[in-house]
Amino acid sequence: MSVWSGFYKLNLEERVRAVAEWAGLEPEEAEVLRQGLSLAQAERMIENVVGTFALPLGVAVHFLINGRDHLIPMAIEEPSVVAAASHAAKLVREGGGFVAESTEPVMIGQVQVLHIADVEHAALEVLKAQEEILALADAQHPTIVRLGGGARGLEVRKLTDTPVGPMLVVHLLYDTRDAMGANAVNSVCEAVAPLIERLTGGRVVLRILSNLADRRLARARCAVPASALGGNEVVRGIVEAWALAAVDPYRAATHNKGIMNGIDAVAIATGNDWRAIEAGAHAYAAKGGSYGPLTRWEQDADGNLIGSIELPLAVGIVGGATRAHPTAKVALKILKVNSARELAEIMAAVGLAQNLAALRALATEGIQRGHMRLHARQVAIAAGAKGELIDRVAERMVAEGSIRVDRAREILNALTSALKA
């Protein structure tokens, strides 16, 4: 059993205190959960600041990953995502929890070379000078090298049929350790570009990392007993729902969007670049030439539902907003992660849980039933309800099965009139 059973029943302040105690937060760190990013802090993060834009920060519970319990901070505005992830994690616990792994945090930096007289000869010259190029790359970030990262190798791609003529693309493989690594990789590419120009006799154009970080993969898998899901019929329905995503990009796009609901929410909470993660995930989903699902679901010989996920996850726990944003720092402390790889593994498990929750809902009562119950409160707020009236309006709409802004206004007007009478 999870120690977090019944967490949702606590009031807001009780939840904050419980999370603070779990994570060992200092009083000022717990206060960050209540207050968030200040204008003074925002002013130093980006340009032309005029305010802050807050998102709800929740925690998904019941996650057992690689034998350890985790609280999952999630920043998201969409109702039902946190609840769905928590419920799915509870189901997965009955099968022993998630097992996750990741590859080394190797990013790809691209150096594009044009106007080459002989592409084959240029490629050979670059490969012959590999040690020199890698040494120059390592000289740019001695701290990363000291921590065990740095340049890992070169690859040369010859692209002869392009709109601007033949080009050479040099891939610099670079281990960024616990950083996402965009700045490090970009600066390394710029540093080696003049040498590559001399070696090839061409002109370097682009010197930038690739967000298709397919050397930096995270994987998670789980086994859920059929009894936990409601029987073999539900297991079969989940597998059948996944099968449509496996053959149809129209369904796969929505399937993967649901996965990213969870992964993006953790990325935002921890100050990671969710846009880069999205770009890499969707590119990876199309790596075979057609767009497909990032997960796989099947039923084993014992009737258990078996799920797995694999995707690029270039995330960090040092540098950028992960350290500049006070809430991101607290979120990382709540997660209790010790490396970027561990964070990526947790995020992969969250994506798999989110997918399980969505497929189970689709295979049983439909996606709208639970979602709209939680969405009703947003509709009530949009109609102008405040305080206790939010829940009263939402409850009435759910009971009627009519969750619309116009109906919320009618209910709100009736309740307001009754209170005045």
What is this entry, summarized?
With 421 residues, this protein is α+β, with helices and mostly antiparallel strands. Helix content is 52%, strand content 19%. The radius of gyration is 25 Å and the shape is globular.
What is the makeup of the main sheet? 4 strands, antiparallel
Rg (C-alpha, Å): 25 Å
Outline, from the CA principal axes? globular
How many angstroms does the end-to-end distance come to?
49 Å
Q: What is the chain-wise order of helices and strands?
A: HHHEEHEEHHHEEHEEHHHHEEHHHHHH
CATH topology of the largest domain: 3-hydroxy-3-methylglutaryl-coenzyme A Reductase, Chain A, domain 2
CATH class membership of the largest domain = Alpha Beta
- In the CATH hierarchy, the architecture of the largest domain is Alpha-Beta Complex
Structurally, the number of domains stands at: 3
Ranges where pLDDT stays below 50 over 5 or more residues in a row are none
Distinct helical segment count? 18
Protein described:
With 421 residues, this protein is α+β, with helices and mostly antiparallel strands. It folds into three domains: 7-103 and 216-366, 3-hydroxy-3-methylglutaryl-coenzyme A Reductase, Chain A, domain 2; 106-210, Alpha-Beta Plaits; 370-420, Helicase, Ruva Protein, domain 3 (Orthogonal Bundle), CATH 1.10.8. It has helices spanning 12-23, 27-35, 39-43, 81-93, 119-128, 130-140, 142-146, 182-200, 226-229, 232-247, 249-269, 274-285, 321-324, 326-335, 340-363, 368-382, 388-400, 405-420, and strands at residues 57-65, 68-75, 99-102, 106-114, 150-159, 167-175, 203-210, 217-224, 295-299, 305-312. The protein has a four-stranded antiparallel beta sheet with strand order 3-8-10-9. A four-stranded antiparallel beta sheet has the order 5-6-4-7. It is globular. It starts with 11 loop residues before the first helix and ends with a helix. The relative contact order is 0.13.
